[in-house]
Design goal:
The chain is of the alpha/beta class and about 220 residues long. It is built from 7 helices and 8 strands, in the order E-H-E-H-E-H-E-H-E-E-H-E-H-E-H. The structure holds D-xylitol-5-phosphate and zinc ion (ZN).
Length: about 220
Amino acid sequence: MKKYIVAPSILTANFLELKSDLDKLKKAKIKWIHYDVMDYNFVPNLSFGPKILSDIVNNYDFKMDLHLMVKIVGFSVEDYLKPFIQKNVKQVTMHYEALNKKQLIDFIKFCKKNNINASLSINPNTEINKIKKYLPNLQNILVMSVNPGFGGQSFIKKSLDKIRLLNEIRNTNNYQYLIQVDGGINEDTYKSVQEAGVDMIVAGSYLVDSKIKNLEERISKLEG
Ligand code: DX5
Ligand code: ZN
């Protein structure tokens, strides 16, 4: 029985080889793909939008885990998110730091209405108590273990305390959210997040890179 859900992030792919990377992940029986959307505003990088998402969902059966590292300016939350609500998009994460209060509430409502997991992420410098009141209404919490924006950065250790704390809060209150971690997961760090009590592990450079020779072995380590 696999203990952890593994969601490879395709941000670290060579985009000219995206098809070959997705084929390898499919062959390795990966169920979830983590799709990082960046806006050159909330984070200093720009990645992909709804078009590449539709090319993926129209050609593969992966469940899509969208990680939106964006601020919403000049749009309602609903209008901004609508183009991303495509076949097999099962979970959408937005950042606590990127949204105002109204946007955050609109986001949770939007997910509920569209039958999608509402997921909130916090950056390494944001404490759990900031999002405490939203926890009963969320299906997933994404603990960023690097500052968002780029693949291949080093794991920030204090994220482990946040994972433990989220576990405690969940147990005490009987909340239902899953705990996800994203950033710097590799050979040296995966065990520590598993032990801290994570449910879903995102990995970019450790799993998505055409040079990797032992993909299935790496996936099975992360799956526990
Ligand atoms: C970073 C992204 C991550 C990234 C992870 O801002 O949210 O999903 O692709 O890459 P690694 O696993 O290489 O840190
Ligand atoms: Zn991500």
